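Course exercise 7: structure representation. Students receive a sequence record and must write out the corresponding structure in C-alpha coordinate form. The form below is the worked example handed out in class, using Pentapeptide repeat-containing protein (264 residues). Read each field label carefully; the graders check that inputs and outputs are placed in the correct fields and that the protein name is recorded exactly as given.

STUDENT ID: A-19
EXERCISE PROTEIN: Pentapeptide repeat-containing protein
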Amino acid sequence: MTRHSRRTRRTTLFAGIAAAFVLVLFGGAPAFAAGALAGPMLADPVYSHDGCIINRSANGPVAGGSQCPGVDLSGQHLAQSDFDGANLTGTNFAKADVQASTFAGAVITGADFSGTRIVGADFTGAGILPPTVDAVAATTAGTAVSLTPVLPKGLTMTGCSIAGEQVDATAVFPLGQTGLVCSFASSRPNEVATVLVKISVTNTATSAPPVPVFTPQPSATSASAPAAQGPSMQTLSLLLVGAAAVIVLGVVALVVRGVRGKRD
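STUDENT ANSWER:
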Protein backbone atom coordinates (compact mmCIF):
# COMPACT_ATOMS: atom_id res chain seq x y z
CA MET A 1 0.00 0.00 0.00
CA THR A 2 1.44 3.36 -1.01
CA ARG A 3 1.86 6.29 1.31
CA HIS A 4 -0.79 8.22 -0.58
CA SER A 5 -3.41 5.51 -0.17
CA ARG A 6 -2.70 5.19 3.56
CA ARG A 7 -3.13 8.93 3.96
CA THR A 8 -6.41 8.78 2.06
CA ARG A 9 -7.79 6.00 4.27
CA ARG A 10 -6.75 7.85 7.41
CA THR A 11 -8.46 11.00 6.24
CA THR A 12 -11.62 9.08 5.40
CA LEU A 13 -11.63 7.44 8.85
CA PHE A 14 -11.28 10.76 10.64
CA ALA A 15 -14.02 12.25 8.49
CA GLY A 16 -16.36 9.37 9.35
CA ILE A 17 -15.71 9.74 13.08
CA ALA A 18 -16.32 13.49 12.91
CA ALA A 19 -19.56 12.98 10.96
CA ALA A 20 -20.80 10.44 13.50
CA PHE A 21 -20.00 12.80 16.38
CA VAL A 22 -21.87 15.66 14.71
CA LEU A 23 -24.86 13.40 13.99
CA VAL A 24 -25.05 12.20 17.58
CA LEU A 25 -24.61 15.69 18.96
CA PHE A 26 -27.17 17.48 16.83
CA GLY A 27 -29.45 14.49 16.45
CA GLY A 28 -29.81 14.06 20.22
CA ALA A 29 -30.13 17.77 20.94
CA PRO A 30 -33.86 18.01 20.08
CA ALA A 31 -34.68 15.12 22.37
CA PHE A 32 -32.65 16.67 25.18
CA ALA A 33 -34.29 20.05 24.61
CA ALA A 34 -37.74 18.49 24.59
CA GLY A 35 -37.01 16.80 27.91
CA ALA A 36 -35.77 20.04 29.42
CA LEU A 37 -38.83 21.96 28.26
CA ALA A 38 -41.14 19.31 29.62
CA GLY A 39 -39.91 20.11 33.14
CA PRO A 40 -39.45 17.75 36.08
CA MET A 41 -41.84 14.85 36.32
CA LEU A 42 -44.36 14.86 39.14
CA ALA A 43 -43.30 12.73 42.09
CA ASP A 44 -45.17 9.50 42.51
CA PRO A 45 -47.58 9.24 45.46
CA VAL A 46 -46.41 7.33 48.48
CA TYR A 47 -49.44 5.04 48.12
CA SER A 48 -51.98 4.47 45.38
CA HIS A 49 -54.43 1.58 45.23
CA ASP A 50 -58.14 1.26 44.43
CA GLY A 51 -58.73 5.01 44.49
CA CYS A 52 -56.84 5.57 47.73
CA ILE A 53 -54.06 7.98 46.75
CA ILE A 54 -51.72 9.43 49.38
CA ASN A 55 -49.15 12.09 48.59
CA ARG A 56 -45.93 12.87 50.33
CA SER A 57 -45.89 16.02 52.47
CA ALA A 58 -43.46 17.69 50.08
CA ASN A 59 -46.05 17.43 47.28
CA GLY A 60 -49.04 18.62 49.30
CA PRO A 61 -52.34 16.81 49.83
CA VAL A 62 -54.32 15.09 47.11
CA ALA A 63 -56.95 17.40 45.60
CA GLY A 64 -60.02 17.04 47.80
CA GLY A 65 -58.05 14.96 50.30
CA SER A 66 -57.14 11.29 50.15
CA GLN A 67 -60.26 9.12 50.00
CA CYS A 68 -59.31 5.98 51.91
CA PRO A 69 -62.28 5.01 54.11
CA GLY A 70 -62.02 1.45 55.36
CA VAL A 71 -58.76 0.84 53.51
CA ASP A 72 -56.29 -1.59 55.08
CA LEU A 73 -53.00 0.31 55.37
CA SER A 74 -51.58 -1.87 58.12
CA GLY A 75 -47.82 -2.21 57.96
CA GLN A 76 -47.49 0.37 55.17
CA HIS A 77 -44.53 2.77 55.13
CA LEU A 78 -46.30 6.15 54.94
CA ALA A 79 -43.79 8.39 56.70
CA GLN A 80 -44.02 12.12 55.91
CA SER A 81 -47.35 11.76 54.15
CA ASP A 82 -49.99 14.46 53.72
CA PHE A 83 -53.38 13.32 55.03
CA ASP A 84 -54.81 16.86 55.25
CA GLY A 85 -58.54 16.81 54.53
CA ALA A 86 -58.50 13.03 54.01
CA ASN A 87 -61.41 10.68 54.64
CA LEU A 88 -59.87 8.00 56.86
CA THR A 89 -63.06 6.68 58.41
CA GLY A 90 -62.39 3.15 59.61
CA THR A 91 -58.93 3.08 58.00
CA ASN A 92 -56.56 0.50 59.44
CA PHE A 93 -53.12 1.99 60.27
CA ALA A 94 -52.11 -0.83 62.64
CA LYS A 95 -48.30 -1.18 62.73
CA ALA A 96 -47.98 1.27 59.86
CA ASP A 97 -45.46 4.11 59.78
CA VAL A 98 -46.98 7.60 59.62
CA GLN A 99 -44.20 9.47 61.40
CA ALA A 100 -43.96 13.21 60.63
CA SER A 101 -47.25 13.08 58.68
CA THR A 102 -50.01 15.71 58.91
CA PHE A 103 -53.73 15.08 59.48
CA ALA A 104 -55.21 18.62 59.45
CA GLY A 105 -58.94 18.42 58.81
CA ALA A 106 -58.83 14.65 58.33
CA VAL A 107 -61.71 12.43 59.46
CA ILE A 108 -60.24 9.58 61.52
CA THR A 109 -63.42 8.27 63.14
CA GLY A 110 -63.07 4.53 63.63
CA ALA A 111 -59.46 4.46 62.43
CA ASP A 112 -57.04 2.02 64.08
CA PHE A 113 -53.59 3.24 65.14
CA SER A 114 -52.62 0.20 67.21
CA GLY A 115 -48.84 -0.13 67.24
CA THR A 116 -48.53 2.63 64.64
CA ARG A 117 -45.34 4.66 64.47
CA ILE A 118 -46.70 8.18 64.98
CA VAL A 119 -43.62 10.05 66.25
CA GLY A 120 -43.67 13.63 65.01
CA ALA A 121 -47.13 13.31 63.41
CA ASP A 122 -49.44 16.34 63.68
CA PHE A 123 -53.12 15.58 64.39
CA THR A 124 -54.17 19.23 64.82
CA GLY A 125 -57.69 19.70 63.47
CA ALA A 126 -58.32 15.95 63.09
CA GLY A 127 -61.10 15.89 65.69
CA ILE A 128 -59.09 14.50 68.63
CA LEU A 129 -59.18 17.94 70.29
CA PRO A 130 -60.70 21.18 69.00
CA PRO A 131 -58.10 23.52 67.52
CA THR A 132 -59.63 26.46 69.42
CA VAL A 133 -61.33 26.52 72.82
CA ASP A 134 -63.23 29.66 73.91
CA ALA A 135 -63.84 30.13 77.63
CA VAL A 136 -65.42 32.91 79.70
CA ALA A 137 -63.93 33.70 83.11
CA ALA A 138 -66.05 34.95 86.01
CA THR A 139 -63.18 37.16 87.20
CA THR A 140 -60.10 38.78 85.72
CA ALA A 141 -57.99 36.01 87.28
CA GLY A 142 -58.87 33.62 84.43
CA THR A 143 -60.50 30.21 84.46
CA ALA A 144 -59.78 26.49 84.22
CA VAL A 145 -60.51 24.74 80.92
CA SER A 146 -61.62 21.13 80.52
CA LEU A 147 -60.24 19.16 77.55
CA THR A 148 -61.83 15.82 76.66
CA PRO A 149 -60.08 14.09 73.74
CA VAL A 150 -61.92 11.92 71.22
CA LEU A 151 -59.33 9.19 70.75
CA PRO A 152 -59.22 6.71 67.87
CA LYS A 153 -58.30 3.13 68.60
CA GLY A 154 -54.68 2.66 69.62
CA LEU A 155 -53.97 6.21 70.83
CA THR A 156 -53.81 7.51 74.40
CA MET A 157 -53.36 11.07 75.68
CA THR A 158 -50.12 11.57 77.61
CA GLY A 159 -50.58 15.21 78.69
CA CYS A 160 -50.36 18.84 77.63
CA SER A 161 -47.69 21.48 78.01
CA ILE A 162 -46.99 25.18 77.53
CA ALA A 163 -43.49 26.01 76.30
CA GLY A 164 -42.32 22.60 77.46
CA GLU A 165 -43.84 22.89 80.95
CA GLN A 166 -46.48 20.31 81.84
CA VAL A 167 -49.95 21.73 82.54
CA ASP A 168 -52.14 20.26 85.27
CA ALA A 169 -55.79 19.48 84.54
CA THR A 170 -56.85 22.11 87.11
CA ALA A 171 -54.60 24.84 85.69
CA VAL A 172 -56.13 28.31 85.42
CA PHE A 173 -55.64 30.00 82.06
CA PRO A 174 -55.26 33.79 82.11
CA LEU A 175 -57.27 36.24 80.04
CA GLY A 176 -56.17 36.30 76.44
CA GLN A 177 -54.83 33.51 74.23
CA THR A 178 -52.59 30.63 75.28
CA GLY A 179 -51.02 28.01 73.01
CA LEU A 180 -51.25 24.46 74.32
CA VAL A 181 -49.44 21.39 72.97
CA CYS A 182 -51.08 18.04 73.79
CA SER A 183 -49.29 14.74 73.20
CA PHE A 184 -50.60 11.32 72.22
CA ALA A 185 -48.92 7.93 72.04
CA SER A 186 -49.54 4.51 70.57
CA SER A 187 -48.20 1.29 72.04
CA ARG A 188 -44.72 2.10 70.72
CA PRO A 189 -42.56 3.44 73.59
CA ASN A 190 -41.19 7.00 73.60
CA GLU A 191 -43.03 7.99 70.45
CA VAL A 192 -45.69 10.70 70.54
CA ALA A 193 -47.76 12.72 68.13
CA THR A 194 -49.08 16.20 68.92
CA VAL A 195 -52.20 18.35 68.71
CA LEU A 196 -52.03 22.14 68.99
CA VAL A 197 -54.88 23.85 70.87
CA LYS A 198 -55.42 27.60 71.23
CA ILE A 199 -57.14 28.58 74.50
CA SER A 200 -58.97 31.93 74.33
CA VAL A 201 -60.25 33.30 77.66
CA THR A 202 -62.39 36.41 77.97
CA ASN A 203 -64.12 38.12 80.89
CA THR A 204 -67.57 39.71 80.74
CA ALA A 205 -66.54 42.52 83.08
CA THR A 206 -63.76 43.63 80.75
CA SER A 207 -65.32 42.80 77.42
CA ALA A 208 -68.74 44.53 77.97
CA PRO A 209 -68.92 48.35 77.80
CA PRO A 210 -69.34 50.06 81.23
CA VAL A 211 -72.90 50.96 82.27
CA PRO A 212 -73.26 54.48 83.79
CA VAL A 213 -74.51 54.52 87.39
CA PHE A 214 -76.57 57.69 86.88
CA THR A 215 -77.68 59.42 83.71
CA PRO A 216 -79.15 62.93 84.20
CA GLN A 217 -82.60 63.38 82.65
CA PRO A 218 -83.79 66.73 81.27
CA SER A 219 -86.38 68.46 83.52
CA ALA A 220 -89.98 68.75 82.35
CA THR A 221 -90.15 72.53 82.94
CA SER A 222 -87.07 73.25 80.91
CA ALA A 223 -88.40 71.16 78.07
CA SER A 224 -91.94 72.66 78.04
CA ALA A 225 -91.44 76.33 79.05
CA PRO A 226 -89.06 78.77 77.37
CA ALA A 227 -86.31 80.24 79.51
CA ALA A 228 -87.07 83.66 81.15
CA GLN A 229 -85.64 86.65 79.28
CA GLY A 230 -84.86 90.22 80.56
CA PRO A 231 -86.29 93.47 79.05
CA SER A 232 -85.04 94.53 75.68
CA MET A 233 -82.85 97.59 75.09
CA GLN A 234 -85.77 99.53 73.57
CA THR A 235 -87.88 99.03 76.68
CA LEU A 236 -85.02 100.14 78.95
CA SER A 237 -84.57 103.32 76.87
CA LEU A 238 -88.28 104.23 77.18
CA LEU A 239 -88.18 103.68 80.93
CA LEU A 240 -85.14 105.95 81.31
CA VAL A 241 -86.76 108.70 79.22
CA GLY A 242 -89.96 108.49 81.26
CA ALA A 243 -88.04 108.72 84.53
CA ALA A 244 -86.14 111.75 83.34
CA ALA A 245 -89.39 113.46 82.30
CA VAL A 246 -90.92 112.86 85.74
CA ILE A 247 -87.87 114.38 87.45
CA VAL A 248 -87.96 117.46 85.18
CA LEU A 249 -91.67 118.02 85.83
CA GLY A 250 -91.08 117.74 89.58
CA VAL A 251 -88.34 120.36 89.48
CA VAL A 252 -90.57 122.72 87.44
CA ALA A 253 -93.39 122.29 89.95
CA LEU A 254 -91.10 123.22 92.84
CA VAL A 255 -89.84 126.32 91.04
CA VAL A 256 -93.41 127.52 90.27
CA ARG A 257 -94.46 127.00 93.89
CA GLY A 258 -91.52 128.99 95.15
CA VAL A 259 -92.30 131.94 92.86
CA ARG A 260 -95.92 132.01 94.00
CA GLY A 261 -94.89 131.99 97.61
CA LYS A 262 -92.72 135.13 97.17
CA ARG A 263 -95.61 137.01 95.50
CA ASP A 264 -97.91 136.37 98.37
